[in-house]
Amino acid sequence: MSEFCSIYSGGTPSRNKTEYWNNGEFNWVKISDFDGKYLEKSQEKITKRGLEKSSAKLFPMGTILYTIFATLGEVAILNIEAATNQAIAGIIPDRNIIDINYFYYYLKSIKKKVVSEGRGVAQNNINLTMLKNISVPIPSINTQQKISITLDLTSKLIEKRKEQLTEMDRLIQSVFYEMFGDPNKTLPNNQIKLKDISKISTGNTPPRSESHNYGTYIEWIKTDNIISNSLYPTTADEYLSEEGMKKGRTVGENSILITCIAGSKKSIGKVVLMDRKVAFNQQINAITVNEETNSKYIYYALKFSKLRLEDYANDSMKKMINKSKLENFFIAKADLEKQNIFTDIAEQIEAQKRVMEESLKEMENNFNALMQKAFHDELFPD
C-alpha cells in the first residue's frame, strides 16, 4: 500500500481543553461513527485550535478510513472533510492506480486476516507500518471498475434485506407503542422501577495476571457482543476457565444484559436477552426479573427506551449508568397478561425475522465468496 497510498493516523485533542471542543467546526470521527460504506457525519466536532494543537489531521472527501485499534479492519469511504481519532488511519490512494470502490472492497475482504494479525499484538491493534506493508492486487482500472460494480450490486441486495429486517423491528416497536406508549416520552403514572421487579448485578474481570482464570469453560461477554439489532448476544471471543468463572459474574437464560459503561452515548443502553449461561464484564449490568414479570417484555421496554437511557447516563467523558441508577430507572407498569400478549405478537414477528436472517446470512456468504474470487483473478481475469 505504501507504493500507491499516503497513510496517516489520527489524534485526539486534549479533553481538558474546552477551547478544543466547544463550538467545534471540523468533523472528528470515532469508530462508533462507522455505519456502512460511506461516512457522512460525526457525533463530535473539534475546533481549529484543537486540530492545530493535536496529532489529528483533516482528511479530504474520498479518503478511506480504516480502523487500526481495538475494533480492527472496519472500512469506510469519507464523504465529508473530517479528522479522526488515533484508532483510525486515513488512507489517500493514487486514483490513477486504484479505483476507490475496488480498494474499499479489497480492504473489507481481508478483515479476518488483519484481525488475526492484530490479535498477536498486546493491545489488539495494527500499526501504520503493518498497514503500509499490506499487499493489494492491482489489475487494470477497467477490471477494477467491473469488480466494484459487481460487488456494489450484490451489496445493495444485502442492504435491501437489512432494511426489510429493520422494518420488522419497527413493526414490533409500533405494537409496543400502541399497547404501552412511547417509553422515551413522559411515562404515565402507571410506572415501576426496575429494582421492584428484578435483581440487578454488575459484571467483572477476573485478574488478568492470573492466566488460569481464562480458558474455554464459559463465554465471557463484553459490550461488543451486545449488538443493537440482535435479540441475543453474539458468541464471545474470550472464555473464562472454571476457576475464572468462580471469580467472575454469571447470568443465565432469560436474563437481560445492558451496556452501562461506554465511550459514547450512542453505545449506552444496548440490550440483549440471554439464551444461555455466560459470564460478563464490568461494563455490563445483568437484569434478572421476578416470576411476575416477562423478561422479553422488559427486554423490549429497555430496547425502546434507548434514547432515555442515553440521557440517563452521566455526562463525563466515559458515559455510565451505575447499578443503583439503573435500579431506579422507570418503565411502564403492565400486568403479566398484557406483557404476555405483547410477547406472543413479538415472537410471531421474530419468527419471520429469523427466516429473513437466514436468507441474509446466505447472501453475505455468497458475497464473501464473490469477493474472494474477485481478488484472486477468478471473476474477471485480466
UniProtKB/TrEMBL annotation:
<keyword id="KW-0238">DNA-binding</keyword>
<dbReference type="GO" id="GO:0003677">
    <property type="term" value="F:DNA binding"/>
</dbReference>
<dbReference type="InterPro" id="IPR000055">
    <property type="entry name" value="Restrct_endonuc_typeI_TRD"/>
</dbReference>
<keyword id="KW-0175">Coiled coil</keyword>
<dbReference type="Pfam" id="PF01420">
    <property type="entry name" value="Methylase_S"/>
</dbReference>
<feature type="coiled-coil region">
    <location>
        <begin position="346"/>
        <end position="373"/>
    </location>
</feature>
<comment type="similarity">
    <text>Belongs to the type-I restriction system S methylase family.</text>
</comment>
<feature type="domain" description="Type I restriction modification DNA specificity">
    <location>
        <begin position="2"/>
        <end position="166"/>
    </location>
</feature>
<keyword id="KW-0680">Restriction system</keyword>
<dbReference type="InterPro" id="IPR044946">
    <property type="entry name" value="Restrct_endonuc_typeI_TRD_sf"/>
</dbReference>
<feature type="domain" description="Type I restriction modification DNA specificity">
    <location>
        <begin position="192"/>
        <end position="364"/>
    </location>
</feature>
<protein>
    <recommendedName>
        <fullName>Type I restriction modification DNA specificity domain-containing protein</fullName>
    </recommendedName>
</protein>
<dbReference type="GO" id="GO:0009307">
    <property type="term" value="P:DNA restriction-modification system"/>
</dbReference>
<dbReference type="InterPro" id="IPR052021">
    <property type="entry name" value="Type-I_RS_S_subunit"/>
</dbReference>
